[in-house]
Amino acid sequence: MHHIVMGLKFLHDHGILHRSLSATCIGIDEDHEIKLRNWGRATFIETVPETENSEVGDKKMFFLAPGIISGECDFNPNLDIWSLGILAL
């Protein structure tokens, strides 16, 4: 978990939100290093993307912050932290 947190810190320090963190977005390379994958929803923190419609059947919805699902949120690092907390459960 520490490596995932450090990866998110690096992204947030560079103004990037992953916005789709889930168990399927975490991989381990041949050197046994944790890698974050699936950058389809990633965005810069200062960029406010258009409202997205997430399908109810999408398994990743369980990891998404409520504000992303409803389309009513400020795009900030708290979105990734929510997903990290769900992942830790």
Q: What would you note in describing this structure?
A:
With 89 residues, this protein is α+β, with helices and mostly antiparallel strands. The chain has one domain (2-88): Transferase(Phosphotransferase) domain 1 (Transferase(Phosphotransferase), domain 1, Orthogonal Bundle). The chain contains 3 helices and 4 strands, in the order αββββαα. The chain has helices spanning 2-13, 66-70, 78-88; strands spanning 16-17, 26-28, 34-36, 43-44. The strands form 2 sheets. Strands 1-4 form a two-stranded antiparallel sheet. A two-stranded antiparallel ribbon has the order 2-3. The radius of gyration is 13 Å and the shape is globular. The termini are close together.
What is the beta-strand fraction? Answer: 5-15%
CATH architecture, please? Answer: Orthogonal Bundle
Major pleated sheet:
2 strands, antiparallel
| Annotated CATH homologous superfamily | Transferase(Phosphotransferase) domain 1
Please identify the top-level CATH class: Mainly Alpha
Approximate shape:
globular
* SSE-based structural type: alpha+beta
Tally of DSSP β-strands: 4
Helix content: 25-40%
Rg, rounded, reads 13 Å
CATH topology: Transferase(Phosphotransferase), domain 1
List the helices and strands in order.
Answer: HEEEEHH
Number of structural domains: 1
